[in-house]
TrEMBL record:
Documented EC number(s): 3.1.3.64
Catalytic activity: a 1,2-diacyl-sn-glycero-3-phospho-(1D-myo-inositol 4-phosphate) + H2O = a 1,2-diacyl-sn-glycero-3-phospho-(1D-myo-inositol) + phosphate; a 1,2-diacyl-sn-glycero-3-phospho-(1D-myo-inositol-3-phosphate) + H2O = a 1,2-diacyl-sn-glycero-3-phospho-(1D-myo-inositol) + phosphate
Species, as recorded: Vombatus ursinus (Common wombat)
Keyword Transcription regulation appears in the UniProt entry: no
PANTHER family: PHOSPHATIDYLINOSITIDE PHOSPHATASE SAC1 (PTHR45662), PHOSPHATIDYLINOSITOL-3-PHOSPHATASE SAC1 (PTHR45662:SF2)
Assigned keywords, A-Z: Membrane, Transmembrane, Transmembrane helix
Membrane-crossing segments per the record: 50-72, 519-541, 547-567
Protein name per UniProt: Phosphatidylinositol-3-phosphatase SAC1
Record domain SAC: where: 120-449
Sample GO molecular function, one term: phosphatidylinositol-4-phosphate phosphatase activity
UniProt xrefs under InterPro entries: SAC_dom
Record-level GO BP terms: phosphatidylinositol dephosphorylation
Gene name tied to this protein: SACM1L
Cellular component per GO, a single term: endoplasmic reticulum
Length: 585
């Protein structure tokens, strides 16, 4: 499938056959539904009785309670063309069981298998899976330019940056057999948008790609900080690309959770207090993180946007102290209290930060290759931005830094005249702002469960009252999801990425962990007490004194129970079951 986007899937009781829709290729992938063996055969060996359906690629395989399943892409949407390579978004999938029956399972096993299937379907329903059959989406233009002829000959699966291959675990069986690699598509999770634009009558392609790391992946409150390997939570590499008259320019930024050991477990409070691990060897993971970042991207400028007071203050102080302790000359730390500086809608004050980093941005530059394929300049360093979630504040700053880089690129390649500003190009400015706001929403939905906050500024360049209302609504939805549905979301991601493996032989699993009695009893007591309070008001007794007594009794009971629930908040949230997350008390 190296040069096609359409395949044929043939299903018989014994095998799955995956056939590329290319008359020049006779090879067919055969998967034995009993032994799970993967082999190559030819088209004439596909039985005429096989049930045939068009698919657009193999996502991979996974083992659940009922046995193995094959996951295939059944619908796709064209995003655009990338240097004559078509980029697709996968929009629908099928999960096909190897087993022809589930009669061998007990009722409990059937229920568990159904739960695991719902987890896989939940991840597949998340918006943001992208692929190409001919182009390596996992690498930046600069990384691809600095490769050997041997690298260019590798399959897309072999050469992919494993940080961004979200179906890497699902493809593990195909990965072990190089001869079938062309049937395995590395799939990116994140955001891609492409636009054909015009300024001064000059047409160019403008592209924005955000690549979400599959290492330490998960949801907002259950995945913070770093792991022992130095992988940061919510790590996203964002690349902005311009293509004009054969010249290509690229500017790359990263975002990621503050890279030390800390947590912020949900407990029904609107903003749980962050906890810093005082026991772990903080510097070891911290150094691992930045060692890998410097190898990959060069010099690092950290832009820390968290509050410098309240519960976020200790995190900012810890980050600053660790950078100083590390003493690495390739790392520069800049703290900018976003909320304080931009309070009372003074968003023009973001220019303070842009001016502060302007010289560093000029020093780092951007990647540029001319129409002859000659590298003109390389990007020598990177801005690593973060706030608490690395979503809303972070995206605003990244969009402003990217615009400044784009200004220089468009002038250099001859699209903008000397003295012209991007902000003056109304049509392109609208495309630019909306694309960055869409990027913010995509990153936020994948991590926090809702669209981003502050996107009114990204879209319009100013903060609005309606934007504040929408932010309030999204904050309420985040609160609900973070407390009452994120455990399931985290389990789904862990299962999909292989952080938890289902054992077909050992049928005990964490799904059967019993909740504490308080989880069931106290909410029921609270609802009953509150209901009785309302009933007493509606059905007044013989005297107001009697009614008031009943209302006070049930009112105190409901409020008291509510306070007990809040005090024991961590017992009532929907916590992950499959993989034990770090607890820092």
């Amino acid at each position: 499938m190296s040069s096609n986007t359409t395949s044929q899937k043939h299903v018989t009781p014994e095998k799955f056959y995956i056939e590329p829709c290319d008359d020049r290729v006779d090879d067919v992938l055969a998967i034995d539904r009993v032994s799970t063996e993967v082999t190559l055969t030819v088209k004439k060996d596909v039985p005429p009785s096989a049930v045939t359906r068009t698919i657009f690629g193999i996502l991979g395989t996974i083992r659940l309670v009922a046995g193995s399943y094959l996951i295939v892409i059944t619908k796709k949407k064209k995003i655009g063309e990338f240097f004559n390579h078509v980029i697709w978004k996968a929009t629908d999938f099928d999960i096909l069981s190897y087993k022809k029956t589930v009669l061998h399972l007990t009722d409990i096993q059937l229920q568990d298998n159904k739960t695991f299937l719902s987890m896989i379907n939940h991840v597949l329903s998340m918006d943001g899976f992208y692929f190409s059959t001919t182009y390596d989406l996992t690498h930046t233009l600069q990384r691809l330019s600095n490769t050997s002829p041997e690298f260019q000959e590798m399959s897309l699966l072999e050469r992919a940056d494993q940080r961004f291959v979200w179906n890497g675990h699902l493809l593990r069986e195909l990965s072990a057999q190089p001869e079938v690699h062309r049937f395995a598509l590395p799939v990116l999770f994140g955001f891609i948008t492409m636009h054909s634009c015009s300024i001064n009558g000059k047409y160019f392609d403008w592209i924005l790609i955000s690549r979400r790391s599959c290492f330490r992946a998960g949801v907002r409150y259950y995945v913070r900080g770093i792991d022992s390997e130095g992988h940061a939570a919510n790590f996203v590499e964002t690349e902005q690309i311009v293509h004009y008259n054969g010249s290509k320019a690229s500017f790359v930024q990263t975002r990621g959770s503050m890279p030390f050991f800390w947590s912020q477990r949900p407990n029904l409070k609107y903003k749980p207090k962050p906890q810093i691990n005082q026991v772990a060897n903080q510097m070891d993971g911290f150094q691992r993180h930045f060692d890998s970042q410097i190898i990959t991207y060069g010099k690092q400028v950290i832009i820390n946007l968290v509050n410098q007071k309240g519960s976020e203050k200790p995190l900012e102080q810890t980050f600053a102290k660790m950078v100083t302790s590390l003493g690495n000359g390739n790392i520069r730390y800049i703290a900018f209290d976003f909320h304080k500086e931009c309070s009372k809608m003074r968003w023009d004050r973001l220019q303070i930060l842009l001016d502060q980093v302007a010289d560093l941005q000029d020093e780092f530059g951007y990647f540029l290759v001319d129409a002859n394929g000659k590298v003109v300049t390389n990007q020598e360093g990177i801005f690593r931005s973060n706030c608490m979630d690395c979503l809303d504040r972070t995206n605003v700053i990244q969009s402003l830094l990217a615009r400044r880089s784009l200004q220089a690129q468009l002038q250099r390649i001859g699209v903008l005249h000397v003295g012209q500003r991007i902000e003056e190009q109304a049509e392109f400015e609208k495309i630019y702002k909306n694309a960055w706001a869409d990027n913010a929403n995509a990153c936020a939905k994948q991590y926090a469960g809702t669209g981003a906050l502050k996107t009114d500024f990204t879209r319009t360049g100013k903060r609005t009252q309606w934007g504040l209302v929408l932010d309030g609504w999204n904050s309420l939805v985040r609160y609900y999801k973070n407390n009452f549905s994120d455990g399931f979301r985290q389990d789904s991601i862990d299962l999909f990425l292989g952080n938890y493996a289902v054992d077909e032989i050992d049928h005990s699993n964490p799904l059967h962990i019993q909740k504490d009695w308080k989880f069931l009893a106290l909410p029921i007591i609270m609802v009953v007490a509150f209901s009785m309070c309302i009933i007493c008001l509606l059905m007044a007794g013989d005297t107001w004194t009697e009614t008031l007594a009943y209302v006070l009794f049930w009112g105190v009971a409901s409020i008291g129970t509510f306070l007990i629930i809040i005090y024991n908040g961590k017992d009532f949230v929907d916590a992950p079951k499959l993989v034990q997350k770090e607890k820092i008390d």
